[in-house]
Amino acid sequence: MTSWQNRTRPCLLIITVICLLAVYADLSGLYDIPERQTIDWRTRLIRKNLPLPPDIAVIIIDEASLNYVNNIAGRWPWPRAIHADLIDALKQWGAKDIVLDVLFTENQNTGVVTGADDSRLAAVTASSGNVFHAVQLVCDDEDEVNKTLLNRDMPEDFLESHAVRLKADAAYSAYNNYYLPLAELYQAAAGVGVVTFDNDQDGVFREERLLFNYKGQYLPGLSLSPLLSRLNAKACALTDDALALPGLTIPLRQGKYYVNMYGRYEDSVYSYGGVLVTIGKLNEGILDDLPVKPEEFDGKTVFVGGAAVGAGDLKHTAVATKTPAVYLHASIFGNMITRDFLRFAPRSVSLVVIFILVILTVLPIFYLKNIFAQVLIPISAVSLYLFAAYKMFEGNTVLPAANPFLSFAGAYILSFTYVGLTAGRDRRKIKNILGQYVSPAMLNDVLKNHKEDYFKAEVGTREELTIFFSDIRGFTTLSEQLREEQVVEILNTYLSRMVNIIFDNEGTLDKFIGDAVVAFWGAPLRHDDDPYRAVKSALAMMEAVKEINQHNRRSDLPELAIGIGINTGSVILGNIGSEKKLDYTIIGDNVNLTSRLEGLTKAYHCGIIISGDTCQHVRDRVLCRLVDYVIVKGKNKPVMIYSVLGHLASADRDALEIAALSEKAFDLYRERRFEEAMAVYREIRKIRPDDFLAAMFMERINGHMTAPPPADWNGAHVLTSK
After folding, report:
1. pLDDT digits (tens, 9 = 90+) for 400-423
2. Residue 157 backbone phi and psi in degrees, to 5
3. Which of 126, 606, 625, 656 has its CA 20 to 30 A from that of 329?
4. For residue 59, with 0-12 CB atoms within 10 Å meaning exposed, 13-18 middle and 19 or more buried, which class applies?
5. SS3 category, 466
6. Per-residue pLDDT tens over the stretch 337-382
């Protein structure tokens, strides 16, 4: 299998594992908190300047209020008369609803059944007709003190007035105790609301139940109670997904409402102390310099609650770490009256998005070679999705972010880890094998850009290559005349020069066979001019041998003569051998033919012989002289062979003329026009009297003229030896 094919299995495995983990995380709620934290982040960014709806006001009991009242009525908790004064003033100023996030579950004075202040607060509540009081539901652990208080029934008159008639599929009851307003208060109130809030595991308050089940009786939350009164809704329908009211359906998640917090409250928030100062001034007939203008509350639903450390309950929310709980109630009410609901994409959307993101992450990393594409495509995909999730949130649609991003991150890390590890292994494997056969520069190029081309050799491929064989003539005899160290010195010097020339021309060294050198061009890197690179190397080697011989003469060593054969054709390329020793090598008929061509250099007295196929690729840059049309030993098909005379650009006039005359003479020879061919070969001898090829063909022509060849003769010369 190739490296490419080897990647398919781990690629599919990573995709499968990440997608299965994502499904598990989604079903198990593993990423619920991270997902909610991404919603917090989006809320802070997108809704940071969004104020409460204009028909909502909030009066907070802040530090300034505590300090002001402390001077006139003492420490918190304040006398009930102060709250009565506030309710009375707000009613006069036109407040539509007054919602108190303050618990009045005990008499003002312990041990007194009903004090004057309690009675006044109840009376003002009744006369105003628009006051909503707070109820608290809790789940207490049983002990000796409270065991008789747990799981009590609520008073019948309370349930008759304030319980909601409900058709419910989402029964949830985790409460075993309650704290109700004083009987006089709940009997006088326009409604009551539960102020119980449950935080998430990370301590952040994000959701509230709008209806609370206590022993089968349902009470509205404090934010829902004024809306039920406004809609005159005595009954509603509840499921895990929605609360249905007359003319309004509120989306829920597992029975809870997800609060769509506002980012700016200060425009709608007033200090309780400032309101009290305004009340005092108005009672004295002072109309100027009022801290709070009474008309600010006209027609509004007013929420009243604590914001100081000692007077109220501060929550960690999506928008701040210390948010007065009353802001949560006001936000929910604002969401409902403006239908400003978050709508969550279904689970199927999350899983489809994750699958697409994982695919767009894993496949580029595994199958693209460009590192920028490997990095850019996955990051672009997840960035575009997160941007879409951000923009969709502007319209209150919540696309999942945590699970898709974490799945992307997991796929990204696993894919790059695997590819990095296997790339390191592949690089070592290539270096171990290919490093023996190519130059360092060529090896780096293969490692960087052509690893897949190399890995085709894992299974073997048929390639069109240019094959090179060279050999030192008579080296066996020469080595017998020298000491062993001299033989090694001569051979190492020669082979080093030859290999450097091959590497300089980006060829691949196949092997040494004694003093013979086998190389090829066209793999693992392919160039358009690979045949020329091979011939160019051969010419450079001939020049290098001249330099070596100059050195040998000075050192009193024998001179060398080499022959080179070059052929271009189809071969099988592969890593061949055993697991312990692999050779990156070539095999096939064209390899054997090249070896025969190298052997012919001695018989034809030529330094370099190339095949006709190679000649066709190089004749526009190299001066080639036609040598013969031969059938080498072991073959049946004849091939045209040529001698390389040098680079065409630097060829002299005699060489050009000899090459042209040789072509002409051989054409006449093959046409059986022997006398004319003989005349052309004589012209060559005039230019070069010692020309071996001309003399050889003149002798061959004399033989044919004496004993003419058979009728089917095509000019091919059959060789009986290597």
Report:
1. 999 999 999 999 999 998 887 775
2. -65, -30
3. 126
4. buried
5. strand
6. 999 999 999 989 999 999 999 999 999 998 887 889 999 999 999 9
